[in-house]
Amino acid sequence: MPRLKDFHIRIKNDKYYEIRYRKHGYNVSFSSTDFEKAKQKAFAWLSAFEHEIYAGYKFTVLSKTEDDDFFFNKQMPFKTFADNYLNTIKKKSVKENTFKDLINKYKNNIEPIYGKMPICKIRPYFIQSHMDKLHDKTPRLCETVKGLLNNIFGYAVDNGILKINPMKSVFVQKHERQVGQALTYEEEKRFIEAIKGNRHEFVYLKMLYSGVRPCEINFVAEDKENNIISVKNGKLKSYQKEKYRIIPIFPLYKPYADIKCERVNTEKLSNEFRTLCPNHALKDLRHTFTSRARECGIDNELVAVWTGHSLGNITSRVYTHFSDAFQQREAKKLTYKV
Fold this sequence. Notes:
Elements: E1 8-12, E2 16-21, E3 28-32, H1 35-46, E4 60-62, H2 78-93, H3 96-109, H4 111-114, H5 124-137, H6 139-158, H7 185-194, H8 201-208, E5 220-223, E6 228-232, E7 244-248, H9 266-276, H10 284-295, H11 300-307, H12 314-319, H13 324-331
Parallel strand pairs: 1-4
Antiparallel strand pairs: 1-2, 2-3, 5-6, 6-7
Protein backbone atom coordinates (compact mmCIF):
# COMPACT_ATOMS: atom_id res chain seq x y z
CA MET A 1 0.00 0.00 0.00
CA PRO A 2 1.17 3.58 -0.63
CA ARG A 3 2.98 5.15 2.30
CA LEU A 4 3.47 8.80 3.04
CA LYS A 5 7.19 8.45 3.61
CA ASP A 6 7.68 7.31 0.00
CA PHE A 7 6.47 10.60 -1.51
CA HIS A 8 9.10 12.97 -2.83
CA ILE A 9 8.98 16.57 -3.94
CA ARG A 10 10.92 18.11 -6.78
CA ILE A 11 11.16 21.82 -7.33
CA LYS A 12 11.54 22.94 -10.92
CA ASN A 13 12.74 26.43 -11.78
CA ASP A 14 12.12 27.46 -8.15
CA LYS A 15 8.42 27.87 -8.93
CA TYR A 16 6.99 24.52 -9.97
CA TYR A 17 6.32 21.78 -7.43
CA GLU A 18 5.98 18.15 -8.40
CA ILE A 19 5.09 15.50 -5.80
CA ARG A 20 5.90 12.01 -7.06
CA TYR A 21 5.15 8.47 -6.03
CA ARG A 22 7.12 5.66 -7.69
CA LYS A 23 6.64 2.55 -5.54
CA HIS A 24 4.42 -0.49 -5.06
CA GLY A 25 3.44 -0.52 -8.72
CA TYR A 26 2.30 3.09 -8.80
CA ASN A 27 3.73 5.84 -10.99
CA VAL A 28 1.88 9.04 -10.25
CA SER A 29 2.74 12.71 -9.83
CA PHE A 30 0.89 15.77 -8.60
CA SER A 31 2.07 19.18 -9.68
CA SER A 32 1.26 22.85 -9.28
CA THR A 33 2.93 26.22 -9.00
CA ASP A 34 1.30 26.38 -5.56
CA PHE A 35 2.91 23.95 -3.10
CA GLU A 36 -0.30 23.70 -1.02
CA LYS A 37 -2.36 22.74 -4.07
CA ALA A 38 0.15 20.08 -5.03
CA LYS A 39 -0.08 18.63 -1.52
CA GLN A 40 -3.88 18.65 -1.66
CA LYS A 41 -3.81 16.68 -4.90
CA ALA A 42 -1.42 14.15 -3.39
CA PHE A 43 -3.56 13.71 -0.30
CA ALA A 44 -6.73 13.38 -2.37
CA TRP A 45 -5.15 10.41 -4.14
CA LEU A 46 -3.71 8.99 -0.93
CA SER A 47 -7.00 9.29 0.95
CA ALA A 48 -8.55 6.74 -1.40
CA PHE A 49 -6.55 4.07 0.40
CA GLU A 50 -7.76 3.05 3.82
CA HIS A 51 -4.59 2.59 5.75
CA GLU A 52 -2.81 4.07 8.73
CA ILE A 53 -0.81 7.19 8.00
CA TYR A 54 2.20 7.13 10.25
CA ALA A 55 3.11 10.30 12.07
CA GLY A 56 6.59 11.70 11.91
CA TYR A 57 7.03 11.12 8.17
CA LYS A 58 7.88 14.09 5.99
CA PHE A 59 7.97 14.77 2.31
CA THR A 60 11.62 14.83 1.28
CA VAL A 61 12.43 17.78 -0.96
CA LEU A 62 14.83 16.85 -3.75
CA SER A 63 16.47 19.92 -5.22
CA LYS A 64 19.81 21.68 -5.27
CA THR A 65 18.84 23.56 -2.12
CA GLU A 66 16.88 21.53 0.37
CA ASP A 67 13.69 23.23 1.46
CA ASP A 68 13.87 24.09 5.15
CA ASP A 69 10.11 24.05 5.47
CA PHE A 70 9.48 20.31 5.65
CA PHE A 71 5.89 19.25 5.25
CA PHE A 72 4.53 17.50 8.33
CA ASN A 73 1.68 15.08 7.95
CA LYS A 74 -1.49 17.00 8.73
CA GLN A 75 -3.50 13.77 8.76
CA MET A 76 -1.51 12.32 11.63
CA PRO A 77 -3.52 10.93 14.56
CA PHE A 78 -3.94 13.25 17.52
CA LYS A 79 -2.36 10.64 19.81
CA THR A 80 0.92 10.61 17.93
CA PHE A 81 1.31 14.38 17.94
CA ALA A 82 0.19 14.66 21.58
CA ASP A 83 2.60 11.94 22.71
CA ASN A 84 5.42 13.77 20.97
CA TYR A 85 4.50 17.06 22.65
CA LEU A 86 4.19 15.52 26.10
CA ASN A 87 7.49 13.63 25.98
CA THR A 88 9.64 16.22 24.21
CA ILE A 89 8.22 19.52 25.52
CA LYS A 90 5.95 19.18 28.54
CA LYS A 91 8.16 16.67 30.34
CA LYS A 92 11.00 19.19 30.43
CA SER A 93 8.91 21.98 31.93
CA VAL A 94 7.38 20.27 34.98
CA LYS A 95 8.56 18.14 37.88
CA GLU A 96 8.53 14.36 37.57
CA ASN A 97 5.53 13.80 39.84
CA THR A 98 3.57 16.55 38.10
CA PHE A 99 4.33 14.98 34.73
CA LYS A 100 3.16 11.56 35.93
CA ASP A 101 -0.08 13.12 37.13
CA LEU A 102 -0.60 14.87 33.77
CA ILE A 103 0.08 11.65 31.86
CA ASN A 104 -2.48 9.86 34.02
CA LYS A 105 -5.10 12.51 33.28
CA TYR A 106 -4.19 12.44 29.57
CA LYS A 107 -4.49 8.64 29.35
CA ASN A 108 -7.86 8.63 31.11
CA ASN A 109 -9.55 11.76 29.79
CA ILE A 110 -7.98 12.82 26.49
CA GLU A 111 -6.43 9.92 24.58
CA PRO A 112 -9.61 7.74 24.56
CA ILE A 113 -11.62 10.66 23.11
CA TYR A 114 -9.26 12.18 20.55
CA GLY A 115 -6.45 9.64 20.12
CA LYS A 116 -7.40 8.10 16.78
CA MET A 117 -8.81 11.27 15.21
CA PRO A 118 -6.68 13.17 12.67
CA ILE A 119 -5.53 16.24 14.56
CA CYS A 120 -6.59 18.58 11.76
CA LYS A 121 -10.18 17.30 11.88
CA ILE A 122 -10.91 17.93 15.54
CA ARG A 123 -13.43 20.76 15.70
CA PRO A 124 -14.38 23.12 18.55
CA TYR A 125 -17.97 21.81 18.75
CA PHE A 126 -16.66 18.28 19.38
CA ILE A 127 -14.29 19.51 22.10
CA GLN A 128 -17.06 21.65 23.61
CA SER A 129 -19.32 18.62 23.98
CA HIS A 130 -16.51 16.72 25.73
CA MET A 131 -15.72 19.64 28.03
CA ASP A 132 -19.38 20.10 29.02
CA LYS A 133 -19.74 16.45 30.02
CA LEU A 134 -16.45 16.48 31.96
CA HIS A 135 -17.30 19.74 33.71
CA ASP A 136 -20.61 18.34 34.93
CA LYS A 137 -18.76 15.47 36.62
CA THR A 138 -15.46 16.99 37.78
CA PRO A 139 -15.05 20.75 37.21
CA ARG A 140 -11.50 20.88 38.53
CA LEU A 141 -10.34 18.02 36.30
CA CYS A 142 -12.06 19.73 33.36
CA GLU A 143 -9.85 22.80 33.86
CA THR A 144 -6.72 20.67 33.79
CA VAL A 145 -7.82 18.79 30.67
CA LYS A 146 -8.72 22.04 28.93
CA GLY A 147 -5.28 23.50 29.69
CA LEU A 148 -3.50 20.41 28.41
CA LEU A 149 -5.54 20.36 25.19
CA ASN A 150 -4.82 24.04 24.70
CA ASN A 151 -1.08 23.36 25.02
CA ILE A 152 -1.18 20.48 22.54
CA PHE A 153 -3.20 22.32 19.90
CA GLY A 154 -1.14 25.47 20.44
CA TYR A 155 2.01 23.50 19.73
CA ALA A 156 0.37 22.15 16.57
CA VAL A 157 -0.27 25.74 15.45
CA ASP A 158 3.33 26.68 16.19
CA ASN A 159 4.51 23.80 13.98
CA GLY A 160 2.22 24.65 11.08
CA ILE A 161 0.00 21.59 11.56
CA LEU A 162 -3.03 23.76 12.31
CA LYS A 163 -3.85 27.32 11.34
CA ILE A 164 -6.03 28.04 14.37
CA ASN A 165 -6.14 26.55 17.85
CA PRO A 166 -9.67 25.08 18.18
CA MET A 167 -9.59 25.70 21.94
CA LYS A 168 -10.06 29.43 21.26
CA SER A 169 -13.73 28.73 20.53
CA VAL A 170 -14.26 26.41 23.50
CA PHE A 171 -15.80 27.84 26.67
CA VAL A 172 -15.33 26.23 30.06
CA GLN A 173 -16.82 27.88 33.09
CA LYS A 174 -14.09 28.66 35.58
CA HIS A 175 -14.08 26.38 38.56
CA GLU A 176 -13.91 28.15 41.91
CA ARG A 177 -11.31 26.19 43.81
CA GLN A 178 -11.66 25.93 47.53
CA VAL A 179 -9.05 27.83 49.48
CA GLY A 180 -7.59 26.05 52.47
CA GLN A 181 -9.22 26.71 55.81
CA ALA A 182 -7.54 26.62 59.19
CA LEU A 183 -8.90 24.34 61.86
CA THR A 184 -10.74 26.10 64.65
CA TYR A 185 -9.27 25.74 68.13
CA GLU A 186 -12.00 23.23 68.98
CA GLU A 187 -11.33 21.24 65.79
CA GLU A 188 -7.62 21.27 66.50
CA LYS A 189 -8.23 19.96 70.00
CA ARG A 190 -10.47 17.13 68.73
CA PHE A 191 -7.93 16.28 66.01
CA ILE A 192 -5.04 16.00 68.48
CA GLU A 193 -7.16 13.67 70.64
CA ALA A 194 -8.16 11.59 67.59
CA ILE A 195 -4.59 10.92 66.45
CA LYS A 196 -3.24 9.71 69.78
CA GLY A 197 -1.74 6.28 69.17
CA ASN A 198 -2.07 6.64 65.40
CA ARG A 199 1.03 5.42 63.52
CA HIS A 200 1.22 8.86 61.88
CA GLU A 201 0.55 10.85 65.06
CA PHE A 202 3.92 12.59 65.12
CA VAL A 203 3.90 13.23 61.37
CA TYR A 204 0.64 15.12 61.77
CA LEU A 205 1.93 17.07 64.78
CA LYS A 206 5.14 18.06 63.00
CA MET A 207 3.11 19.34 60.05
CA LEU A 208 0.76 21.23 62.35
CA TYR A 209 3.55 22.88 64.31
CA SER A 210 5.94 23.72 61.46
CA GLY A 211 3.73 24.63 58.47
CA VAL A 212 5.57 22.32 56.04
CA ARG A 213 3.73 21.17 52.94
CA PRO A 214 2.53 17.54 52.70
CA CYS A 215 5.04 16.98 49.89
CA GLU A 216 7.85 18.25 52.15
CA ILE A 217 7.23 16.20 55.29
CA ASN A 218 9.54 13.39 54.12
CA PHE A 219 12.40 15.89 53.70
CA VAL A 220 12.56 17.47 57.14
CA ALA A 221 15.69 17.35 59.31
CA GLU A 222 15.96 18.75 62.85
CA ASP A 223 19.06 20.29 64.40
CA LYS A 224 18.25 20.67 68.08
CA GLU A 225 21.66 22.10 68.93
CA ASN A 226 20.97 25.15 66.77
CA ASN A 227 17.20 24.96 67.27
CA ILE A 228 16.46 24.84 63.55
CA ILE A 229 14.62 22.69 61.02
CA SER A 230 15.87 22.18 57.47
CA VAL A 231 13.12 21.67 54.88
CA LYS A 232 13.61 20.72 51.24
CA ASN A 233 11.45 23.06 49.17
CA GLY A 234 8.67 21.07 47.49
CA LYS A 235 7.47 23.82 45.15
CA LEU A 236 10.34 24.19 42.71
CA LYS A 237 10.11 24.06 38.93
CA SER A 238 11.80 21.20 37.08
CA TYR A 239 14.64 23.48 35.93
CA GLN A 240 15.40 24.82 39.42
CA LYS A 241 18.06 23.35 41.65
CA GLU A 242 17.17 21.86 45.01
CA LYS A 243 16.62 24.49 47.67
CA TYR A 244 16.25 24.23 51.42
CA ARG A 245 14.73 26.68 53.83
CA ILE A 246 15.74 26.95 57.44
CA ILE A 247 13.08 27.65 60.06
CA PRO A 248 13.22 27.70 63.87
CA ILE A 249 12.09 24.79 66.00
CA PHE A 250 8.94 26.31 67.44
CA PRO A 251 7.97 25.75 71.11
CA LEU A 252 5.07 23.41 70.28
CA TYR A 253 7.26 21.44 67.84
CA LYS A 254 10.15 20.98 70.26
CA PRO A 255 8.74 17.93 72.17
CA TYR A 256 8.68 15.97 68.90
CA ALA A 257 11.99 17.11 67.43
CA ASP A 258 13.80 13.96 68.62
CA ILE A 259 11.19 11.60 67.22
CA LYS A 260 12.15 10.06 63.88
CA CYS A 261 9.14 9.48 61.68
CA GLU A 262 8.93 6.86 58.97
CA ARG A 263 8.64 7.96 55.37
CA VAL A 264 4.97 8.37 54.46
CA ASN A 265 2.88 8.09 51.33
CA THR A 266 1.31 11.54 51.24
CA GLU A 267 -1.68 10.42 49.16
CA LYS A 268 -2.58 7.75 51.71
CA LEU A 269 -1.88 10.19 54.53
CA SER A 270 -4.24 12.69 52.90
CA ASN A 271 -7.01 10.10 52.63
CA GLU A 272 -6.55 9.09 56.26
CA PHE A 273 -6.66 12.72 57.35
CA ARG A 274 -10.08 13.17 55.74
CA THR A 275 -11.47 10.40 57.92
CA LEU A 276 -9.96 12.01 61.01
CA CYS A 277 -11.01 15.54 60.08
CA PRO A 278 -13.88 15.21 57.55
CA ASN A 279 -14.36 18.92 56.84
CA HIS A 280 -10.71 19.57 56.00
CA ALA A 281 -7.88 18.58 53.67
CA LEU A 282 -4.36 17.68 54.81
CA LYS A 283 -2.99 21.02 53.63
CA ASP A 284 -5.24 22.71 56.21
CA LEU A 285 -2.70 21.81 58.90
CA ARG A 286 -0.40 24.23 57.10
CA HIS A 287 -3.14 26.88 56.99
CA THR A 288 -3.68 26.33 60.70
CA PHE A 289 0.02 26.94 61.42
CA THR A 290 -0.05 30.15 59.35
CA SER A 291 -3.19 31.43 61.07
CA ARG A 292 -1.89 30.68 64.57
CA ALA A 293 1.44 32.42 63.81
CA ARG A 294 -0.33 35.56 62.72
CA GLU A 295 -2.70 35.42 65.68
CA CYS A 296 0.38 35.27 67.92
CA GLY A 297 1.52 38.59 66.46
CA ILE A 298 4.25 37.38 64.07
CA ASP A 299 4.95 39.50 60.99
CA ASN A 300 3.20 38.24 57.83
CA GLU A 301 6.37 38.40 55.74
CA LEU A 302 8.27 36.32 58.26
CA VAL A 303 5.48 33.72 58.27
CA ALA A 304 5.73 33.64 54.45
CA VAL A 305 9.47 32.99 54.72
CA TRP A 306 8.90 30.15 57.18
CA THR A 307 6.23 28.49 55.03
CA GLY A 308 8.14 28.92 51.77
CA HIS A 309 5.69 31.30 50.13
CA SER A 310 6.90 33.92 47.67
CA LEU A 311 6.64 37.38 49.18
CA GLY A 312 4.11 39.80 47.81
CA ASN A 313 6.26 42.31 45.98
CA ILE A 314 9.67 42.69 44.37
CA THR A 315 11.05 44.83 47.21
CA SER A 316 10.12 42.17 49.75
CA ARG A 317 11.49 39.30 47.67
CA VAL A 318 14.81 40.97 46.95
CA TYR A 319 15.59 43.04 50.02
CA THR A 320 13.82 41.40 52.96
CA HIS A 321 16.16 39.42 55.16
CA PHE A 322 15.42 38.42 58.70
CA SER A 323 18.38 37.64 60.93
CA ASP A 324 18.57 34.26 62.61
CA ALA A 325 18.45 35.88 66.04
CA PHE A 326 15.30 37.82 65.12
CA GLN A 327 13.62 34.67 63.76
CA GLN A 328 14.42 32.76 66.94
CA ARG A 329 12.94 35.55 69.07
CA GLU A 330 9.79 35.67 66.94
CA ALA A 331 9.45 31.89 66.97
CA LYS A 332 9.06 31.93 70.75
CA LYS A 333 5.80 33.86 70.29
CA LEU A 334 4.24 30.88 68.53
CA THR A 335 2.73 29.17 71.54
CA TYR A 336 -0.93 28.75 72.39
CA LYS A 337 -3.38 26.39 74.08
CA VAL A 338 -6.34 24.56 72.61
